[in-house]
Amino acid sequence: MAKVGEMVLPAMERRGPIEAWIIDDTGFPKKGAHSVDVARQYCGQLGKQDNCQVAPSLSLANHHASLPAMYRLYLPQDWAADNKRRRKAGVPQEISFNQEIALEQIEAACRAGLTRGVVLMDAG
Asked: CA–CA separation, 40 vs 78, rounded Å?
């Protein structure tokens, strides 16, 4: 079965060429502290700091549509430093605190040969 992006991207490009790669993050509010990566941090959906998960993403966009291409949960420092909680949740040691997820996503998109566009992101 073809990947969704392999089906959607050609249809999207029929409406116009890819013009931008959009880097953004999405916050998912969470009430408990047991979900992986939940920490008190800024959550865009709430417009304030609260318990949430944050996932940076890279989307391809033209004037008609955007397509999420890469997505990964951000591992906050308190999770990265807490080996007991990491073991309990099954977070491997090779996944560490990382503020450079967007750069890794851009590099991976280049290696994958995705149609390039201007990289857009906010100050966050």
From this structure: 10
% of the chain surpassing 70 pLDDT: 90
pLDDT of 85-104, one tens digit each?
Answer: 888 888 887 776 666 888 89
End-to-end CA distance of the chain: 37
Instruction: Measure CA 23 to chain center.
Output: 8
Secondary structure of the chain in HEC code, one letter for each residue = CCCHHHHHHHHHHHCCCCCEEEEEEEEEECCCCCCCCCEEEEECCCCEEEEEEEEEEEEEECCCCEEEEEECCCCCHHHHCCHHHHHHHCCCCCCCCCCCHHHHHHHHHHHCCCCCCEEEECCC
